[in-house]
Amino acid sequence: MALGSNTKSYETPNHPWQGERISEEHSLVERYGLKNKEELWRAQSELRDYRREARDLLGQTQSEDEVATAGGEFLTRLKRIGILDEEDQLDQVLSLEISDILERRLQTVAYRKGLANTTSQARQFIVHGHITVDGARVRVPSYTVEVSEEDSIAFDENSPLADDLHPERAEGQ
Q1: Which stretches make up the RNA-binding S4 domain (predicted)?
Q2: Which domains does the chain show, CATH number per domain?
Q3: pLDDT tens digits, the chain, 173 residues: what are they?
């Protein structure tokens, strides 16, 4: 198989014309400044994968040690990216919401840190290369920010936005 296969990384809704689902999707797209519903569907597929893995681990009939090891690695990964809190257990993965996934996007974290006035502006700053994570320029708004990286999100030192007096800077930032 050639590199870059054309397999989609998300599933579309089963029924295309459900008014309640459409309005809920629209409000999430607006709130998180997503480009289109495809980004939302990718996050929903990611959440579905997490839940599936948690169900599989909870339902395994293997020895307790094997399940604890596999479950521990899974929980460590979710805690590292900030989807779960340190004291959360495996069964809490099943109660995660789509907002838990969307809150860990670079676009949302940059907005919550006050680097932009809106989520859409945060997206623009990222795509235009004004935002760095750990000193490295990241141009992907959907980049999943780890908890350890949160404090290192800042404007690129060579960006005009690094100047506190730049007119596009968020008030008080």
Answers
A1: 104-166
A2: 19-96 (no CATH), 105-162 (3.10.290.10)
A3: 456 677 888 889 999 899 999 999 999 999 999 999 999 999 999 999 999 999 988 887 667 777 778 788 999 999 999 999 999 988 899 999 999 999 999 999 999 999 999 999 999 999 999 999 999 999 999 999 999 999 999 999 999 998 888 888 866 55
Do residues 96 and 83 lie in contact, with contact meaning Cβ atoms separated by under 8 Å?
Answer: yes
The residue written with tokens 């929980």 in the block is: 75
What pTM did the predictor assign?
0.88
Q: What is the DSSP string of the chain?
A: --SS----SS---SSS--HHHHHHHHHHHHHHT-SSHHHHHHHHHHHHHHHHHHHHHHH--S-HHHHHHHHHHHHHHHHHTTSS-TT--GGGGGG--HHHHHTTBHHHHHHHTTSSSSHHHHHHHHHTT-EEETTEE---TTPBPPGGGGGGEEE-TTSGGGSTT-TTSPTT-
The values of phi and psi at residue 144, to 5°, are -85, 120
